[in-house]
Input
Amino acid sequence: MLDDGRYPLTEADLLPLSIGAALLGTGGGGNPYVGMLRSRELLRKGATVDVLPLDALPDDAWVGEVGGIGAPVVGVEKIEQGEECYRAMRAVEDVAGVKMSALICAEIGGANSMEPVITAAQAGLPVLDGDGMGRAFPEVQMTTFFIYGAKAAPAAIADDKGNTVVFRDVVDMYWLERFARDTSVAMGAAAGLAIAPMRADFVRRTAVPGTMTQALGIGRTILDARKRRLSVVDRIIATTGATLFFTGKVTDIRRELTGGFSRGEAQIAGMGDWQGCDGRIAIQNENLVLWVDGVPVIMVPDLIINLDLETGEPITTEVLRYGQRLAVIGLPVHDLMKTPEAMAVVGPQAFGYPDLDFTPLAFGPIGN
Amino acid sequence: MLDDGRYPLTEADLLPLSIGAALLGTGGGGNPYVGMLRSRELLRKGATVDVLPLDALPDDAWVGEVGGIGAPVVGVEKIEQGEECYRAMRAVEDVAGVKMSALICAEIGGANSMEPVITAAQAGLPVLDGDGMGRAFPEVQMTTFFIYGAKAAPAAIADDKGNTVVFRDVVDMYWLERFARDTSVAMGAAAGLAIAPMRADFVRRTAVPGTMTQALGIGRTILDARKRRLSVVDRIIATTGATLFFTGKVTDIRRELTGGFSRGEAQIAGMGDWQGCDGRIAIQNENLVLWVDGVPVIMVPDLIINLDLETGEPITTEVLRYGQRLAVIGLPVHDLMKTPEAMAVVGPQAFGYPDLDFTPLAFGPIGN
Output
């Protein structure tokens, strides 16, 4: 470990990182398992990836944000070629005329926790300890970076076939989302996206800090509890500041793929302390709102996490199925995601719930 | 006129050019009227545009192909900002690292006859006397340029809001069509597309030659016939080598906008020599097939042109309506569009008619 606080990601770190990231995906973000295997392969071949604190870079260094874009339900079946994000990042470097000094996750939640690790291993770069969401969100503009003024262009998207499309001049982050989404659908609903280079001082101010380390810690907690045959759900609640909001059995799941998103709703019949209660979770890639008996109890941007009641395994929305027994826990999102600027982009109303005013979860230190 | 055969496009040329281009649009390609007005405005402000024979440029000069992309039915209502193609062309120049020496039409038919004229006036470039179709077609790859090996990248698309997207690496021309189409839909179904620079010697071999001059001539014939109160339909047939294949009244028109295309079908009840016969025309932006009593009599890539029976006005598919009286004429397409390579891209089977083998119209010298 160098004295700037960096630490190397070891092969042994990858599994807990992917498990913690799956939990922070709040049901979405895609399954990080394949990305974990790919990262491991790269490390075994001799690549090294350091995790760098946000303050380790000089102000004027350039940081690249990369991630997969598409529908998680497609990502399960359609394996990436492996260099999508790398080629997108190189295209952005070419068009912008800069070289990246480090990479950062768009979202720590789900598969996109691993993408910058893969790209960093391929490019010989470090990754920063932080991300743009502190969780997963379905759309490109839903990062602290864009919320606080990151440039929408030049960005680039690449697919598994060798196609690279550059978003050279883009009016705003919503247009970037639109172009990137439609292009990712044309590419088969799975592609790698790199956004415009960001200065390190900007990233230091706007990233959700420490989330690589946080995901690693959560993953280690889960693996440790399994090894010691403790209740994973209990251990997560004890160590992360999460609260249990519902337990029950999935009685119905509706899911459709429209415009590159998995949208749907899950019905859950209460069990245990919630016997006789009706749970309902709205989904757009991630879990958006949990209602219990019609009352919204957790809502986006706070984190709604479904764990398998027995194993504590985080359940992503694409594998939710009839009969699953769930523990639904809530975690407060980082303060950077609770400002009026953030509410306009990731509040309940931005997700199509005009009648829901964001009522933040009042507890828990996670990420704050 | 310089001794390389060039001639300047005058303000007086623009109306006949647009009228001839509308006829060569074979029902599609969008209405050239707005582009004609915009070209006129630019010429009145002092811009000059020369029409250059295909052999006027040195072999290694670069030629740019520009055109509007979107659904004609949208183009009628959504007026271009005016520099879409220009910005797309400049983006291609930047990415490719070359400067264009001249521009050429993707398609002489319809609105895209005027787009290179507008861009040429804005950029101070000449236009070449030729195009990539000798008519209009609905998709990007349906040009002689792509059929005979033009590169699919880098190409660029720009909209009226300031967005520019670069297709930097593209596997083939079908992927370019897919990306450009989807992006144009995201842009509101009206945008300007510039394809990769082509060498002048390649364009000389592959362009349909003389079609700017041909469109001008057709337009002048129509205007002259109107002025002299002659039958426009008769004069067109007398001067272009076209044949009359049907006259009748539109009894039904079905049209829908899907994936950026106007698709549909028109039913026509025969009149005059075709009294008692049933005509039917399939449409995908352009007229694709004319059946008379169930027998295909003209089929893509030959030109199927609907003229107003009384005025001789070319009728585009987006203004086709119940009760219109039509003269349906056929014109043979250029030989470059009849090779096996061309059939694979623009033959009846490429348009979804597996049972139609292309039977070319046997007459007429147009464009050949």
User: Anything to note?
Assistant: The radius of gyration of chain A is 19 Å. DSSP finds eleven helices and 17 strands in chain A. Chain A touches chain B at residues 91, 95, 156, 158, 161-171, 175, 178-179, 182-183, 185-186 (CB under 8 Å).
